[in-house]
Amino acid sequence: MQKSYSKLLGIVGKPNTGKSTFFSAATLAPAEIANYPFTTIKPNRGIGYVRTPCVHEEFKVKDTPSNSLCLDGVRMIPVEFIDCAGLVPGAWEGRGLGNQFLDEIRKADALINIVDASGGTDAEGRLCKTGEHDPVEDVKFLEHELTMWMASILKRDWPKISRTVESDRKELYSALEERLSGLSIKRVHILEATRRTGLNTDRPTSWSDEDFLRYVDALRQISKPTLIVANKMDLPCAERNRERLEKLGYAVVPVCAEAELALRRASEKKLVDYRPGDCNFKISNPGNLNPNQLGALETIRERILLGLGSTGVQEAINTAYFKLLQMVTVYPVEDIEHLSDHSGRVLPDAYLVPYGTTARELAYIIHTDLGENFIHAVEARERKRVGEDYVLKDRDVVSIVSSKKRA
Question: Residue by residue, what is the 3-state secondary structure of 299-349?
Fold first, then answer.
């Protein structure tokens, strides 16, 4: 299967919150899971899927997906995750191999912070009595660690950068863009941080330490948008704590990663009919399950699916890509009449692209030659020609016409 993703999602949090369970549930990759800190000693990379209704039913065609999957009218588009080991207080200074783990999320475009909503793990990730720890503190702790980590990277060159800006009349955003490109921080992020903080970027040498940290914190919020996963929603105190987490201003998704992992493994073994994100499942053959297994599945149905509407794992993935990263789905084709590529495959590819992507930018995403030799595009619903500045809408089906190649 070809890759169609371009945005990397980082899964972060303190130890023992269910990060590895969430990662395994989302990817079914072999990540070790256990009830002790630092189970994950190196980052795991894996492929999960964004779920979206496929357009083939609207166009009344039978699709033949290539870079994605179509399950009963639901298009599953591959996306990449990186699961980092649990962070503890002081990680930005190297405690618990923190610097090493933080460096693994340099390229992440958004973060999912897995929080134990039950309050059953302390600040270090050790098990404690349910409700004993405040999960709100875990969110604040991670904010601090990430900001201080980014500040420590920028601080090394800050005197030189600030002097260069003032002596050579170089724009601060230009100097910062060069220094921070390795953290996937772009010019638009820097400009927004400048607007948000209102600091004088012509005289950065005049900034106090508090000004500097305020600016870096704004950069962190803008360049690494974060979703809070309130995990372990099947445990006591979780619902109350979820409401408190929502007051922090983040998007919060209630999740039971263990339930999702159980359902996906049962589905893999053909014991149940279940698609990631469904609000229910069907037991394929009850005779293949023992009473304990049947009881466990019914508990998941009653306590999780009927209570929350889903296990939350797929909702978290979709929220990260469609809301935090503001992606839209587009289907490039070559033959606009048959909605196919040069091999005759119908609606073969589904791409996730940022909101605001133009037809010409999509052409470059597909192939450099298409972008450089762009003539026009054709939008399938209205069968009309559109120019290079046409802004793609979610679920658009388009054909790119170029002087060299059509796709």
Answer: HHHHHHHHHHCCCCHHHHHHHHHHHHCCEEEEEEECECCCCECCCCCECCC
Whether the model clears a pTM of 0.85, i.e. scores above it, the answer is yes
pLDDT in tens, the chain (407 residues): 334 446 899 999 999 999 999 999 999 744 444 444 444 445 578 889 999 999 999 999 999 999 999 999 999 999 999 888 788 777 666 665 545 656 778 889 999 999 999 999 999 999 999 999 999 999 999 999 999 989 988 998 999 999 888 887 778 888 898 888 888 899 999 999 999 999 999 999 999 999 999 999 999 999 999 999 999 999 999 999 999 999 999 999 999 999 999 999 999 999 999 999 999 999 988 888 999 999 999 999 999 999 999 999 999 999 999 999 999 999 999 999 999 999 999 999 999 999 999 999 999 999 999 999 999 999 999 999 999 999 999 999 999 999 974 44
Contact 140, 15 (CB under 8 A): no
Q: Among candidates 11, 27, 31, 28, which has minimal Cα distance to 19? A: 11
Q: Confirm if 343 and 334 have CB atoms less than 8 A apart.
A: no
Residue with the two structure tokens 């599953």: 76
Tokens of 152: 């420590």
Lookup: tokens for 266: 């049962």
| Backbone φ and ψ of 221, nearest 5° | -65, -40
Q: Domains along the chain?
A: 8-147+226-321 (3.40.50.300), 150-218 (1.10.8.470), 329-402 (3.10.20.30)
Q: Which amino acid is at 240?
A: R
Check: CB of residue 370 under 8 Å from CB of residue 401: no
Asked if 120 and 196 touch (Cβ cutoff 8 Å), the reply is no
115 and 13 Cβ atoms separated by less than 8 Å = yes
What DSSP line would sit under 111-172, residue for residue? EEEEEETT--B-TTS-B--TTSS-HHHHHHHHHHHHHHHHHHHHHTTHHHHHHHHHHS---H
